[in-house]
């Protein structure tokens, strides 16, 4: 039986989209998944989910070169799934051209549940509200393909979406959040200094909310560095893609405040943070692709020495389904202990810092191994 199983083809990665949703004060939204979920149980994840031909349009077939490329169905799925999973609609008003928020809580929640249940088309909801999905506002930020050997696999297009600077920010803790995890580093920058000035747009963004426990039990904005701190303390579960991308965001968006008395940032300072991040994401470094072009299917490179349970994951491979011409990030590795409850002690390092040159990972800078 084992030899028969070994010849079975691996599961085909299911196309999906995910969004790193950035608040008006440059904090990042994560959702806490229910412990009974078949994917990422109990983990904190970005909003997102599988593409739907019914809602999102034609999905590239398995043998198409567009299957693992940014495209219309991936973008519409990113907008729809964000709406379903946290209640924030990434769409613009046909009348004003600005972010659409012109419905009450009850109407928004009813539409959200209908779309999730399949009793109403997402396109019909948008048309009724006079809204247009803001697919152009999505910034491609790498693709991740589940490695071989796992029973459920996804080809996930990651996007960043910036909610407008100057709009009213959600609080860092949603009123409906049931998360037991306190903020390890409360951020006094929750409100821009010049919020509400005459030049600020009159947009009130609804609080992110979970979906009533169907897939998530909490929805919360925090600075990227705060999410990473919670994961390093093993108080939340972050899988390698989420940890890696938050690691990339953290030096640019809402970087650590040195003193609680630090003044809140101006709108221009917040925008500068975003501009610097976008410039970094667009860069190519030697043979490394830009984040928009990168495709990553993590590969186990080795284990820590001396009986360590740490697994070292390489990020250079794009996966067997993608073929030639694509690559991930050769200079980075993700390290983690994989337990029954999920990855623990996750960290991102430069490959050169932990590779000892003798085919193992136990050299300079690798004390964690």
From TrEMBL:
GO MF annotation list: hydrolase activity, acting on acid anhydrides, in phosphorus-containing anhydrides; metal ion binding
For region Disordered, the annotated ranges are 168-206
Which cofactor does the UniProt annotation name? Mn(2+); Mg(2+)
Q: CDD domains from the xrefs? A: NUDIX_AcylCoAdiphos_Nudt19
Is Metal-binding among the key words of this record? Answer: yes
Sequence ranges assigned to domain Nudix hydrolase in this UniProt record: 12-245
**Which keywords has UniProt assigned to this entry?**
Hydrolase, Magnesium, Manganese, Metal-binding
Highest taxon of the lineage: Eukaryota
Database matches in SUPFAM superfamilies: Nudix
GO cellular component terms, A-Z = mitochondrion
Q: Where is the composition biased (Low complexity)?
A: 169-180
Q: Which PANTHER family match?
A: ACYL-COENZYME A DIPHOSPHATASE NUDT19, TESTOSTERONE-REGULATED PROTEIN RP2
Per its record, how is this protein called by name? Answer: Nudix hydrolase domain-containing protein
Species assigned in the record: Massariosphaeria phaeospora
